[in-house]
Design goal:
Elements lengths: L10 E4 L5 H12 L3 H12 L4 E7 L2 E14 L4 E12 L8 H15 L4 E5 L11 E2 L5 E3 L9 E5 L2 H4 L4 E4 L3 H4 L2
Parallel strand pairs: 4-5, 7-9
Antiparallel strand pairs: 1-2, 2-3, 3-4, 3-9, 5-8, 6-8
Length: 179
């Protein structure tokens, strides 16, 4: 078995008080900047509805994923779902299945909460493995200008609630304010 295909034995659990510094480090190192870490800190402070999970190996947090409320607004209505952002894994642990494990665990919680959709702005070769499709297929656009069509995706979890829904998908305002 190739070393790159080896899935490390990590434990996925909810973020706990005291994890903040390690989560910040994971996001900063994974993205090579502080923007995502700043967003996570702002959402931790202002978004009690968030779902924040970590991947732990021994005593070290090596991965993090965050889901926060998002909406799709149209002329006729607003539907509430979740946005996946950010998802990060320490560079030394990337390509070992930890990110996929975080996504799977997070989506199980989101599904259990009867969330109708999850949006993500991410790698078009990565997120479709978890069922995400181009949001444009459903006439749903990102609020952000210049986002490549293939990078803005949606996972429909409740076909009935999402039937006929189209419009502009929006993340929480902290995504703007923290950068």
């Amino acid at each position: 078995m190739s070393k790159n295909k080896l899935t490390l034995n990590s434990i996925i659990r909810s973020e706990l008080i005291g994890d903040e510094k390690q989560i910040r480090k994971v996001n900063a190192l994974a993205f090579g900047q502080d923007d995502e870490a700043n967003i996570v800190d702002a959402l931790r402070e202002k978004c009690p509805e968030r779902i924040s999970l970590v991947a732990k190996m021994n005593t070290e947090i090596v991965g993090h994923i965050l889901f926060t409320p998002a909406v799709i607004e149209s002329d006729k209505n607003i539907i509430r779902g979740m946005g996946l952002a950010p998802m990060s894994v320490l560079p030394a642990y990337q390509n070992k299945g930890i990110g996929s494990k975080l996504v799977r665990e997070g989506l199980e919680i989101v599904k259990a909460n009867k969330t109708p959709f999850v949006i993500v702005l991410g790698h078009p070769n990565y997120y479709p493995r978890s069922g995400f499709e181009k949001a444009s297929k459903y006439q749903i656009k990102s609020e952000y200008e210049g986002v490549p069509d293939e990078a803005f995706m949606i996972l429909i979890l409740d076909e009935e609630k999402m039937r006929g829904i189209s419009g502009i998908a929006k993340y929480r305002k902290e995504f703007y304010a923290a950068i």
